[in-house]
Design a protein that fits this description.
Keywords: Methyltransferase, Transferase. By secondary structure, this protein is of the alpha/beta class. It is about 35% helix and about 25% strand. The protein has a single domain, classed as Rossmann fold (3-Layer(aba) Sandwich), CATH 3.40.50.150. The N terminus is likely disordered.
């Protein structure tokens, strides 16, 4: 235990672990399998090799002062590895994909600050309390059903210390998957994902890896009002909601030049014009 962690207040009686039972089922299992293929193929890391330095700067600022930070849906550590360099906090990397965490574990093997990281696969009940949390780049959108997403958000909140902050980003339905959403609304698109009926603004689609493997994905697209509502219904106080970026994540993660352009542009646009929505909430 580091000296900083000893300063954390004890876990309150209210913050008992949440089993998140509503996240389980065929659809959730299918998404775990999809991400196993996604990471194994290398497609994910090729599409998103790094985080924008400006996106990182914003997260670091919004979680400033946190002594222990949860990275929910950390994957192979795109944000976690950078947070390790830019903060002094203990970091908890949580993900349901064992392959992703194994890749992250290997990245940490010879890292001089690896003692500040704890990785947890799948069982949120193993997670200690924290005073900062993050869930970036649409992790919440891959959790089937609104009940499942709310259970997840409530679980994150229950482990968050009073006054702690939670930053999250999700895809903006004003900018993404218009065709798929429209076809489903008029009855021409998929109506379920692995036996789970699709709810409003749910998308089911497929993507091919470079070696031809098919990835079947579930995605929920948010709008500003629905994102704020879900955070509020989970018990968070929403402090700010803004555009995550103007350009696509692939563009700004591959090019520093475009990342600079994007950082200037996104400051001038409303949340509804963003490629994604970015929120800072507190307990």
């Amino acid at each position: 235990m580091t000296p900083e962690s000893q300063c954390l207040p004890p876990l309150s009686a209210e913050a008992t672990p949440m089993p998140m039972d509503s996240v389980k089922g065929r659809a959730a299992d299918a998404m775990v399998e999809t991400y196993r293929k996604y990471y194994t193929s290398g497609l994910y890391d090729n599409r998103y090799p790094d985080v924008s330095p400006f996106a990182l700067e914003r997260v670091v600022k919004d979680l400033e002062g946190s002594k222990r930070i949860l990275d929910f849906g950390c994957g192979t550590g795109r944000y976690l590895m950078r947070m390790l360099e830019h903060t002094d906090a203990e970091l908890i990397g949580f993900d349901v994909c064992a392959i992703a965490l194994e890749k992250l574990r290997k990245r940490l093997e010879n890292h001089p600050k690896r003692h500040r990281v704890r990785l947890i696969c799948g069982d949120f009940n193993e997670c200690p309390d924290y005073d900062g949390a993050m869930s970036m780049f649409g992790v919440l959108s891959h959790i089937p059903t609104r009940a499942g997403r709310l259970a997840t958000l409530r679980g994150i909140r229950q482990r968050l210390q009073v006054g702690g902050r939670f930053v999250a980003s999700v895809p903006n339905g004003m900018r993404r998957y218009h065709k798929e959403n429209f076809l489903r609304h008029i009855g021409l698109g998929p109506r379920e994902f692995e036996g789970t009926p699709l709810e409003p603004n749910d998308i089911a689609y497929s993507r091919l890896t470079d070696d031809g493997a098919r990835l079947d994905l579930y995605y929920h697209v948010y709008f500003g009002g629905t994102f704020r509502r879900d955070l509020s219904d989970a018990g968070f106080s929403v402090n700010k909601l803004e555009a995550e970026s103007l350009l696509t994540e692939t563009t700004i993660s591959h090019s520093l030049r475009w990342a600079v352009v994007d950082d200037v542009a996104r400051r001038m646009i409303p949340a509804m014009a963003g490629y994604g929505l970015y929120a800072v909430s507190s307990r």
